Structures are given as C-alpha cells and as structure tokens.
Amino acid sequence: MPQKAVDRTKKLTKPERNKRNEGLEKRRQEVLEKRARKFDRQFDAIPAWCAADKRETREHTEYLDAIKKELQDERDNQEATGVVKKYTNTG
User: Fold this and answer.
1) Is 85 in contact with 74 (CB distance < 8 Å)?
2) What is the pTM assigned to this prediction?
3) Phi and psi for 79 in degrees, rounded to 5?
4) Is 85's pLDDT higher than 60?
C-alpha cells in the first residue's frame, strides 16, 4: 500500500513549539489568577449583601406593618361608627 505524502508546512520548529507552549501556559496561568481574584472579590462584597438584605427586610416589614395598621384603623373606625367604608371578602 503506498504511503500518502505528508504535509509538513504546518509543522512547527522546536523553538516555535516551545514559544507556543509558553504562551499557552501563560494564558492558562492568567485565567487561573483571574478566577482567584474573582473568588476573593466575592468575599469583599459580603458586607454589602448583608446591608442590602437588612434594608430589604426592613422595607418589607414596614410595608406589612403599614397594611396591618390600615386594616386595624378601618376595623376600629367601623366599630366606632358602625359604617362600613371598605368591604372585605370573608371566608
């Protein structure tokens, strides 16, 4: 069986191959360093996340308290006057 001709135009020389491998290794190292920096930065953001969570929780409880207060005021007003201004669905 005859052998096929081999195209050696794309084959790198030893110095070219070493240079390419050094470049690949350098890029891999940069990616790893970037991942490490990103991982470390997320811990710097924890106090901001905690503050945002506290703020959202406080806003939500204030919202619920305002609704409860409005309902209680309406109930008190209905008991005092006997007039229903806001109808509610019961049951």
Assistant:
1) yes
2) 0.48
3) -65, -40
4) yes
Region at 18 (left for phi over 0; alpha for psi -120 to 50; beta for the rest): alpha
Alpha carbon 53 to chain centroid, angstroms? 13
Q: Amino acid identity of 14? A: K
User: What is the Cα–Cα distance from 1 to 77, expressed in whole angstroms?
Assistant: 104
Q: Which two tokens stand for residue 88?
A: 């509610």
Q: How far apart are CA 86 and CA 80, in angstroms?
A: 14
**Tens-digit pLDDT profile for residues 17-53:** 999 999 999 999 999 999 999 999 999 889 999 999 9
For residue 84, report the phi and psi dihedrals to the nearest 5 degrees: -95, 115
